Amino acid sequence: MSLSRRSLLGGAAVACAAAALGGYAAGAYAEAVSAAHLRLARRSSLVATRFGDLEYAIEGRGDPLMMVHGTGGGFDQGLLFGGGLILRGHQVIAPSRFGYLRSTYPADPSPANQADAFADLLDRLGIDRIPVAGGSAGALPAAHFALRHKDRCSHLILLVPGMNLSNRDPVDFTPLQRVLVDRLLSSDAWFWAASRLAPETLMGTLLATDPALLAKVSASERERARLVLDALMPIRPRMQGMIHDGGMAGSPADIDLAHIRVPTLVMSAEDDRFGTAKTARVIASRIPDARLVIYPSGGHLWLGHDDEVSAEIAGFVGRRAG
C-alpha cells in the first residue's frame, strides 16, 4: 500500500472517530438535558401572588419549614438543602425565587417583594407561622421575611448567607473566572461539557467548595455535592434569577438586621470560598441574640456537615418554638 493511500485511510479513520465521538457527545448532552427537564416535571405547583406566579414544591411530613434556595437553584435546590430536615420529620416547603424555573420575574424583583410573595404562598397554604431558612443568596429574602412578617416567622435560619454587607461582592472572581462563569451559566451545553470534563473546577468556583474535601467525606456527602451541581441544569429557565442575584451581590444589601426580632440561627464554614463565614459573624453581631455556628471546613456546601447542620436546625427550631 502506498504512503499516500495509507495517509488517506488514516485520515478517514480519524475523521470517522471524531464524528463518532461528536455524535456520542451530542447524544449524551441531549440525554442530560432531557433528564434535567424530566427531573423537574410534575414535582411543583404554582400559586398566584401579587407579583405573578410563584412556583413551589412540598416534601415530607411533620412540622413545616420553608427553605429558600441560592443562586442557580429553584425549588429543587431548596428540597436538596432541606433533605436532612425531611428525614428528621419536617415538611419542607421550597419556593422558586423570582426568575427561577416557573416563577415570574416581576418589574421589581427586590428581596422585600420576594418576602411578600412568600407571605402570599403561606396564605394559599393556610399556614400562619413557620420557620424560614435561606441558603446562600436565599438568605437575604429570608431575612426580609423575618423583618417584614415577624408575626409569621417563628424562626430564621441563615445558611452560608450570601449577603453584601460591606459594599464588596462576596463572589470575588478574577476577570478571567468571571468570563468563564458567565459563559458556563448562560448555556446548558457549556455547563454540561464543563461538568463532565472538569467537575472539580466547578465545585471550587461555582459552588465555592474545596474539591479536595470530596476525598475526605462520606459517599452520601459526595453524592449530595454531585446532586447540587447537576441540579443547576437546566440553566436557561434560571437565567433571569441568576442575573438578578449577580446584580444584588454587587450592591450593598438594603436591610436593617438590627430590627429582626425572631430567634435566629446563622451558619457557615470557615473555608467557604465566598467568604460567608465573615458575613455570618457580621449578621450574628447585628441581630439581637442570634446563635452563630461556624464549621472549620465544608465550603459553601457545608460538605461533610449536612447531618450536623440538619440536626442543629431541627434542634434550634424545636428548642425555641413559639
Walk me through what this model shows:
With 322 residues, the chain is an alpha/beta fold. The protein has helices at residues 3-40, 75-81, 83-87, 111-125, 139-148, 175-184, 188-197, 199-205, 219-230, 239-249, 276-286, 306-319; strands spanning 45-49, 52-59, 63-68, 90-95, 130-135, 153-159, 264-269, 291-295. The chain has an eight-stranded mixed sheet with strand order 1-2-4-3-5-6-7-8, with helices on both faces. Strand 7, helix 11 (276-286) and strand 8 form a beta-alpha-beta unit. The N and C termini lie far apart (87 Å).
Record keyword descriptors for this entry:
single chain, 322 residues, alpha/beta, 8-stranded mixed beta sheet, 8 strands, disordered N terminus
Layout: helices, strands, pairs:
Elements: H1 3-40, E1 45-49, E2 52-59, E3 63-68, H2 75-81, H3 83-87, E4 90-95, H4 111-125, E5 130-135, H5 139-148, E6 153-159, H6 175-184, H7 188-197, H8 199-205, H9 219-230, H10 239-249, E7 264-269, H11 276-286, E8 291-295, H12 306-319
Parallel strand pairs: 3-4, 3-5, 5-6, 6-7, 7-8
Antiparallel strand pairs: 1-2, 2-4
Helix pairs in contact: 4-5, 7-8
